[in-house]
Amino acid sequence: MIHIVEDDARVAQLIGETLHRFGYQYLVFSSGGDFLRQLRISPPELCILDLGLPDMDGMEVLQQLRSRHRFGLLIASGRVDTHDRVMGLELGADDYVLKPFEPRELIARVRSILRRYQPVVPATDGQRVAHFAGWCFECGSNVLISPTGERTSLSLAEAQLLLTLLERPNQILSREQLLNGRDVSALDRSIDLRVSRLRKRFEQGALDGKFIKTVYGAGYLLATTVRWA
């Protein structure tokens, strides 16, 4: 189920018809309050959120839901200021699309986010655990364990990014590869923001966590040995 939080009835109808055409079920909410109340009953797989809501700013909605829920979130807004895009991504949105948008672009972004939130399937019957530079990452539970034994639950977006790096250590991965093949424009720095947040996780640990290297003009590289158990 996909939730559309949009107060413009025409835009909500366009998004809904596009989703229905591609086989997705959806519900429409015209205010942030109605949407947040629905979350107490049943959260969606993905939310398409407008920022200009009648009862509260979309950024406030984003802050409230990200403090309690983990599901896909796509901002669909007419705000063209780069500051709004960066703030939305830093607050936990998975992607940001500007209005007006092509229906095919919307569906491509929806599919990309939904793939990112698919559960990680272990390669064996047991839970896979990656060991690297004194750290451990439990794939099945998205738990990161520091060299001192401190356990931290990663968001699904952070866990997917880390898993992609761990599965191909010491290889340069482009932004497109780290975003599951989605095209990256000059203004879309969402992957850079996710890498920055992930780096901060490691830098708070007992060891120097600067092993996620930036390869300028190419992408990122995990410069460490990974052992799977």
UniProtKB/TrEMBL annotation:
Keywords: DNA-binding, Phosphoprotein, Transcription, Transcription regulation, Two-component regulatory system. Residues 1-114 form the Response regulatory domain. One of its GO terms (cellular component) is cytosol. It comes from the Bacteria. InterPro entries: CheY-like_superfamily, OmpR/PhoB-type_DNA-bd, Sig_transdc_resp-reg_C-effctor, Sig_transdc_resp-reg_receiver, WalR-like, WH-like_DNA-bd_sf. Residues 127-224 form the OmpR/PhoB-type domain. The keyword Transcription regulation applies. The modification 4-aspartylphosphate is found at residue 50. CDD domains: trans_reg_C. The keyword Transcription regulation applies. GO terms for molecular function: phosphorelay response regulator activity; transcription cis-regulatory region binding. One of its GO terms (biological process) is regulation of DNA-templated transcription. Residues 127-224 bind DNA. PANTHER family: DNA-BINDING DUAL TRANSCRIPTIONAL REGULATOR OMPR, REGULATOR OF RPOS. This is DNA-binding response regulator. It comes from Parazoarcus communis SWub3 = DSM 12120.
